[in-house]
Amino acid sequence: MPGQTWKEELSGRTDPQWEEEIDIFEGQVELRRTGKIDEKVFAETRLRRGVYGQRYDNGKRHDGFAEQPLAFADKPTKGPDTVWDAPGMVRIKIPFGGVSPEQLEVMADLAEEYSDAILHITTRQDVQLHYVHIEDAPDLMRRLAAVGITTREACGNSVRNVTACPLAGVCHTEAFDVSPYAQALMTFLLGHPDVQDFGRKFKPAFSGCEHEACGLVQMHDGGFVARMKDGKRGFKVVVGGGLGPVPHQAQVLSEFTPEEELLPEIQAVARVFARLGEKKNRGRARIKFLVAKLGIEEFRRLVVEERTTLPHDDRWTAFLNDMPHTRGEPVREPAVLNGGARPHGFDAWYATNVYRQRQEGYAVAMLNLPLGDLTSDQTRKLADLSREYAGDNLRTTVEQNIALRFVRESDLPALYEALDAVGLAAAGATTIVDVTSCPGTDTCKLGIAASRGLAGELRKRLSEKSAQLPQAIKDLKIKVSGCFNSCGQHHVADIGFYGNSRKIEGRTVPHFQVILGGQWQNNGGSYGLAVGSVPSKAIPDTIDALTDAYAQGREGDERFQDWTARMGKRSIRELIKPFMPVPSYADDTAYYSDWSDVREFTIGDLGVGECAGEVVSLFGIEVVKAESQAFDAQISIDDGDYETAEDLAYRAMLSSARALVRTEYIDVTEEPDDIVKEWKNRFFDNERFFDKYAKGKFGQYLIDRYANPVASATRDDASRRVEESQLFIEASHACEARVVAEVAAAGGIELEPSANA
User: What is the band of 326 on the pLDDT scale with cuts at 50, 70, 90?
Assistant: First the structure.
């Protein structure tokens, strides 16, 4: 009714508990505005409500309240009463990616009214709205809650969104539909007291198949693969997976957990993690570190022991008696695709974007969304088309797309035309053209390089020549992260990238580390490793070189992962080596800005600072040794010599640390004791090695390995040490940039802060 607030209008139409929680949050927003809650306390509160601070076009990073009004020209503003100077991001939880037309329409309205009229699909099947003002968040949450969606625990040290295969329920090879179990797990754990005291986040995933990509359970904190045993439903349960800076493969907790034990078992896992997981050092606080520390056998014993102490909860099995309705019903009777006329472009779209369901006469139509974005207008049209052709059968995907399910095959041409009319009929879904990207420097406060800018450029170039690409190239996965945290899932791509930077002639140049050989299949079965850092502007040419070599050199139907293994790291590095040098600023200024950003990505010219010039030169020469040792460690892994690989990776960290020390103390020896002592004294203990976000965790890698030599390294030990050494070297580059800035400042030369600072 006119004059009513959203709180008044929606009262009684929402889960009472959700209403109360949103009311409490609204009160906390007001208390923060008036300075009655400390920002650190409020930050944890808003994160648990799904509200992030975000980064902006001008490169400044914002978090919490401040005084200046929003200055982002084409984004919504609230006027002089704004309490949060730079609006943030709201993440909306979409369990197993299941979303209805009504929910889409509400999110479209919210994006238009409170955001920039863009819905962004994430790699965890969530929806994100950017540029939302903090005072609008409670009403936004109320309107979502009225259609059964929450933002609670979409961020923060909590159980994040429960993901699942978007083909669950229609797949030809699944054991059974995992969607109801994913919904039950999310409902059970949402706000549960046993998941409120984690040191870090916990990400669950469900898969209906063992060997397909499906839910990518191997890279999750908790993963559940559907299995049948003696006619009974259950799950293979894995724990301790994760990507991030140093990826871990999940370990098997249970080969078969009956469906009635699914919830109590994960509750027991949560209690063990909450009790024994790291709380002080965030860099070691994920469950993967606890599993690695204890070993899977001991962790399993603790979970079994914990299970026996749990008080009975009727919710453990109640959902089995009233299985949540997740599949929806088709709106039309099945009918196969006939031989009638097909619209222009339909055949190319059909070849890549359509999956024939196990239900005869029905298909899944995949919407290939550029960078995971769609507008409010497109979203409303999609809701209408879903009602007409597919009912409630929509799913978001971890590849940032949307799947329309239970479309009868004979309706596909008409659906294609309708999608094409609103710009949603791009072909190439799940192919090399469909590049996945995290937000990167567009909005993420941790972004180093423009992952979305690079992904957009690659998508454009690959789309232009997709018709000429051989099928083996079309089938490749490319994934881009703006930093080492792997939000773009670069570790499980055939070709992955994560953002970093290098100092060239006193200027900061955006780069991407090239990761090759990850495995998307087998639920993210193995991770790729870095082979070299390439300037951002040279990445498209690098892609061309790699794919051309693969197309010409593969044997039979050899997969890209197998081809890279057969070629070997040295040969692969030779392929990308021509693209690694950076031309001088005078020869090509394009290298000194990032994709989709006209500004120069630079910390300025050092001018006459000869001392600074010597610092750069000395470090640049000596750190090459560290990079070579880290690369040789990968060669040793390929050769099966894991002890040598682990030792080389450790020595790479020592060499990198020594290169830093020698910028200040030329006489440091090559003895580990001397290097670690001097490095700790000069860079770590005084926190000069720390950056704003990773703090000292990359430096801790060297300290931990120095204090705890490895007696007998496994492949996993070696792989993790290589990842650690790469991150330590990157942190050393960033630290060296800050050292140069210190020297320049002492000499009166003003520099902008480094992108890594």
Answer: low
